[in-house]
Design goal:
The structure is a single chain. The chain has one domain: Up-down Bundle (Four Helix Bundle (Hemerythrin (Met), subunit A)). 50% of the residues lie in helices and 3% in strands. The protein is built from five helices and two strands. It has a two-stranded antiparallel ribbon. Helix 1 (7-18) runs antiparallel to helix 4 (98-111).
């Protein structure tokens, strides 16, 4: 299983992020490339414990979260299209410095090397093991990079 805790996988993600530019168009979804890189940065900051978002599982997640988590971390199958971003991860700003945003994202990917956020609770899945976090963090990044065909 691919995990963001694997140095080779982080290197793969780094190479893919490096290929992003303003001309990349989404194959699905509403975000442009700047919004996607910002969204991924905010999401990674959340997982890494680098922002002030509260860790709390939503009520619907308490019913379906563990089943969905198992389904999304049992194999290397990519995440499906059309899953809405949570309100905290929605990026309304349409334009910005893409190169600066890519640098932030790349630094956050590197930060997974020293992951130590045992307080993390996914808003839908709930409490996750380190292994599940690594797999899902990879799948989340992969999903959005595939969205822009990289």
């Amino acid at each position: 299983m691919k995990t963001i805790f694997d140095p080779a996988i982080r290197e793969e993600l780094t190479r893919r992020v490096d290929t992003l530019d303003e001309n990349k168009k989404a194959l699905w979804g509403k975000m442009n490339v700047f919004q996607m890189t910002r969204h991924c940065s905010i999401w990674n900051e959340w997982v890494l414990g680098k922002n002030r978002l509260v860790y709390k599982q939503e009520w619907l997640g308490k019913i379906f979260g563990k089943m969905a988590l198992r389904s999304n971390t049992k194999d290397d199958k990519p995440l499906g299209k059309g899953m809405p971003a949570g309100k905290a991860f929605t990026v309304k700003q349409k334009e910005g410095d893409l190169n600066a945003q890519k640098k932030i994202l790349l630094d956050l990917i590197t930060d997974f090397e020293n992951f130590s956020n045992d307080q993390f609770i996914h808003d839908f899945f709930g409490k996750m093991t380190r292994e599940q976090i690594g797999i899902f963090a990879y799948k989340h990044s992969d999903h959005h990079l595939r969205q822009f065909n990289v």
